[in-house]
Structures are given as C-alpha cells and as structure tokens.
C-alpha cells in the first residue's frame, strides 16, 4: 500500500529483457535502505526488489505488468518516481494507492500557469475507468487531484515542488504515463455495473 507521495526520483542504469520478463536496475538515494523482497512503487507500479548492490537495486516486471504499464518504454538514464510502501501508523498525505496500474494515458497538453503547470492526459475510456472533478488520480505513482474531468481526458495542476521532485519535469506532449484510478471509485463502478444493489 502506498500514498502517492514520491520519495525519490531514481535513474535507470540497466535494462535486461529475459523471455517475457524485464529486469530493471535503478540508482537511487534510497537503495541502501532497501531489503530484498521489499515492495517499491516505480512510476506507480509495485515491484519487488530482487537484488541490491550499493546505490543500485534491481526489480523484475513480468509480461502482464509490461502489457498494462509504460515500463517497456523505459530507457537507460530515464527518471523513475519511487516510493516505498507506507508504514502502518503514518499520516496518509496522498490517498490510498495500491501500486496496481489500471492503464496508460498520453500527455496531450502542458501549460505553464504563473508558477504552476497544468498537464492534460487522454486515456482509453473503453476500459471503463473514470475520473471525477476534484477526485484523486495517481500518475506515475504521484497522488494528484483531478481538474477538468471528461469522459476520456482530465487535467492536473502541478505545484513547483512536485514538478521539481518527480519526473513530471521530463514530460512532453506524447509522453506515456501510468494511471491508477481511485480504488473506492473502482469498487462503486463495479457494483453499479453488476447491478448489485438491485439483487
């Protein structure tokens, strides 16, 4: 379980495709504090640490993860948003994030707005995920508030701190990002679709 508050931005040092798996090595300031078998969110994707070597560590993404996320587009030297799992009893500064990406989206517009930035994203609405105005959304693991919610697009406003301390500062029009929709909203949608309340 995560909060969507990014701890560090790691740098991809090595990528190794083995059959359907992708082994990803990352250099970060939190590497020395990690343990083998620990869960870490990478651009919003929960992956297990399988190896640690000084300030670098390695995780493995399987085919199902690669099919649903932007991890296969990563290149050496790319920046990755990192967050360790939350501790029981900590403040929940973001929102409840599972680290299970629902789908990807494409950045379609970036607007500087007098000291902040507004990013707009389009996603495939056929997968039946939805946003609501002022609701929570996770983009590349970052907990954010939705503005301008539409059927297949939405925007988020980014403050300077978030811009500087996440990989949002590398986004361009066309950048593919990972989305995790609000878990409570997903349950409500599923219940309504299944006609649960009319049984």
Task: Write structural notes for this entry.
The chain has 199 residues and is mainly beta. It contains three helices and twelve strands, in the order E-E-E-E-E-H-E-E-E-E-E-E-H-E-H. The chain has helices at residues 63-68, 160-165, 183-193, and strands at residues 8-18, 21-27, 39-42, 45-53, 56-61, 79-84, 103-113, 116-123, 136-139, 142-147, 153-158, 176-181. The strands form two sheets. Strands 1-2-5-4-3-6 form a six-stranded antiparallel barrel. Strands 7-8-11-10-9-12 form a six-stranded antiparallel barrel. The mean pLDDT is 92.
Kindly state the number of beta strands: 12
Helical amount among residues, as a percent range? 10-25%
Percentage of residues in DSSP E strands: 35-45%
Q: What is the CA–CA distance across the termini?
A: 32 Å
Secondary-structure-based class equals mainly beta
Walk me through the topology.
Blueprint: E1 8-18, E2 21-27, E3 39-42, E4 45-53, E5 56-61, H1 63-68, E6 79-84, E7 103-113, E8 116-123, E9 136-139, E10 142-147, E11 153-158, H2 160-165, E12 176-181, H3 183-193
Antiparallel strand pairs: 1-2, 1-6, 2-5, 3-4, 3-6, 4-5, 7-8, 7-12, 8-11, 9-10, 9-12, 10-11
